[in-house]
Each structure stands twice: as structure tokens, then as C-alpha cells.
Amino acid sequence: MTEQSPDPRAAEPLCGDDPCSDALGRLYNYLDQTLTDDVRTQIRGHLDDCGSCLDAFDFEAELRIVVARKCQDSVPESLRERIARELGIE
After folding, report:
1. Terminal-to-terminal C-alpha distance of the chain
2. Domain architecture of the chain: domains with CATH
């Protein structure tokens, strides 16, 4: 997983005007567990009450699992050696 810069909204509560938009805007931070516990609890509560947001979160979480499973192939040693030669790393 790539390292991300901290979300400046990590500790901000959900916006009362448009909690769906706010929750979906923090979807990846929620999945990466980079939000404060209080904000995660607020988002979890919103997901419990909002089926469409829950569907979006479930889809993204499942997609991450599928991608992680598919990205476990090992690189053939001959390819590693060729890349190392091209980069001058031997």
C-alpha cells in the first residue's frame, strides 16, 4: 500500500449539511484507518443508517480485497535480473 499524507480532516466531525458526500469523500481514509476513532465512529454510524453509502463502502472494500489477491504474482527471476542489469544494479 502506498503511504499517504495525513487527511487534514482526520479529526473533523461529519458535515451536517451533506453527511453522505462527506462520508464518501473520506471513504479511502476510513478504509486505510487514518481517521480519528471519533470520526470513524461517526462514519460507521452514518453507514449503519444509509444503505447507499454502505453499498459504496462495501464495494470499495471488496475491490481492495480482489486487487490485493490478484497482485500477489511473483516476478520471474529472469525479469528481475534483466531489470537490474538495465538499471545498473547487480
Report:
1. 26
2. 19-87 (1.10.10)
* pLDDT tens for each residue of 15-48: 667 889 989 999 999 999 999 999 999 999 999 9
> How far is Cα 71 from Cα 34, in angstroms, rounded to an integer?
23
Residue entry with cell 504474482: 73
- Residue 6 one-letter amino acid: P
Residue 17's alpha-carbon distances to 6, 20, 26, 30, 76, in angstroms, are: 24, 9, 15, 20, 52
Distance of alpha carbon 53 from alpha carbon 59, whole angstroms: 10
- In angstroms, rounded to a whole number, what is the distance separating the alpha carbons of residues 56 and 30? 12
